[in-house]
Design a protein that fits this description.
Order of helices and strands: EEEHEEEH
Helix content: 25-40%
Structural class: alpha+beta
Strand content: 25-35%
Largest sheet: 4 strands, mixed
Radius of gyration: 15 Å
Shape: globular
Oligomer: single chain
Strand order of the largest sheet: 3-5-6-4
């Protein structure tokens, strides 16, 4: 499990990250109803800290409204899945 930073002070475990979608698709229509269903169950979290929403991050059990672009989040997720962010212990002399 490698955390993927998605904005604010929030990160999601790479193995729990299901989808990253551009926020513009959630401004109207059926997608608004999808968001409303998660809001009713308190499973949606706005981490934009007053900024502009750019993406919707779908994790295993909740949704996050993120201020980071979908492309940047995808790159972070890809790096995590490839193990680029693996942490190695450093021995001190």
């Amino acid at each position: 499990m490698i955390p993927v930073f998605i904005g604010g002070s929030t990160s999601v475990a790479s193995d729990k990250l299901l989808a990253i979608i551009d926020w513009k698709y959630f401004r109207e229509g059926d997608n608004r109803a999808f968001l409303a269903s998660f809001r009713e169950r308190n499973r949606i979290f706005d981490i934009t800290e007053g900024g502009m929403p750019k993406s919707l991050v779908i994790a295993a059990d909740r949704l996050y409204i993120s201020p980071i672009s979908p492309l940047a989040l995808k790159k972070r997720s890809d790096r995590a899945k490839k193990g680029i962010y693996e942490f190695n212990s450093v021995e001190e002399d």
